[in-house]
Amino acid sequence: DGSRVDEKTAFRLLDCALEQGVTFWDTANRYNGGTGNAEVVLGRGSFTESFPLFGLELSQYEELFEEKLELFTRLRSENPVTWNGSTRAPLQNQRVYPPTASGELPTWIAVGGTPQSVVRAAHYGLPLMLAIIGGEPARFAPFVDLYKRALAQFGRPMLPVGAHSPGYVAATDE
Fold it and tell me: Do 61 and 44 meet the contact criterion of CB atoms below 8 Å apart?
């Protein structure tokens, strides 16, 4: 049905993502109503130790994320993309394969504590995922308010807001 990839292709895609600086994936086979299709959660990350590992300069932190996010949002539409930036090679009429069943890869922007990241999610018209690593969840309420105001200012419809917080639930899923 075009929504699954074989293991060899999956490893090629992961290798390519690593080469571009992606250092974290959060997927689960129960997303999207149990269909097995994954969603992407993109965020700048709270740890910068991986920059030297991938030959990146920490001084480019903001530029790298902004440019890769802009490219990703264009590619996720599954239409051919011609793109040119300053942190990677240009693309000419490129598509992403395999296509998804829905025609667009579900994508969220993860935010851990900066208002700029909240506004960025609204600017790109992507749902907001609050990455609550620790502390009281209530302290993230102002980010939800800011997100709703920013969506309105950008003329975008209201979008979902989720929360991700690590925790132990059970030893098995049974």
Answer: yes
pTM of the model: 0.72
pLDDT in tens, 133-149: 877 788 889 999 999 99
**Cα gap 30→111, rounded to integer Å:** 23
At 13-38, the pLDDT tens digits run: 777 777 766 665 655 544 445 555 67
Whole-angstrom Cα distance, residue 98 to residue 4?
A: 7
Q: Which residue has the higher pLDDT, 133 or 120?
A: 120
User: Which amino acid makes up residue 7?
Assistant: E
